[in-house]
């Protein structure tokens, strides 16, 4: 005699976990929604850069550049290291890297 086929139903999703994930996603999207921060992350997606290199590449004046790098740092999207007088930045978020990849494919790739 053949056994009855089992139908697997997905387990219900934990609403609190979904809410926390949605909040984290919204926070990331809010941070990325600023054009200056997006340009900085685009450049940093190519590798570590110091403040002078970023300033030259994105054309953002120093006060604004420092402010936007501070936001990215506060949100945990970039990390820094100091070498002498230079501060180097790199992307420190796998989620931001993944979103930047999608944005590049949709908006930057010819």
Largest beta-sheet details: 3 strands, antiparallel
Q: Oligomerization state of this entry?
A: single chain
Q: Mean of the pLDDT scores? A: 92
Contiguous runs where pLDDT drops below 50 for at least 5 residues: none
Outline the structure in words.
This protein has about 110 residues and is of the alpha+beta class. About 60% of the residues lie in helices and about 15% in strands. The protein contains five helices and three strands. The protein has helices at about 15-30, 35-45, 50-60, 60-75, 95-110, and strands at about 50, 80-85, 85-90. Strand 2 and strand 3 (about 85-90) form a beta hairpin.
In short:
This protein is α+β, with helices and mostly antiparallel strands and 110 residues long. The chain contains 5 helices and 3 strands; from the N terminus they run H-H-E-H-H-E-E-H.
Q: What brief labels describe this structure?
A:
single chain, 110 residues, alpha+beta, three-stranded antiparallel β-sheet, 5 helices, 3 strands, 13% strand, elongated
SSE inventory with pairings:
Layout: H1 15-32, H2 35-44, E1 49-50, H3 51-58, H4 62-74, E2 78-83, E3 86-91, H5 94-108
Antiparallel strand pairs: 1-3, 2-3
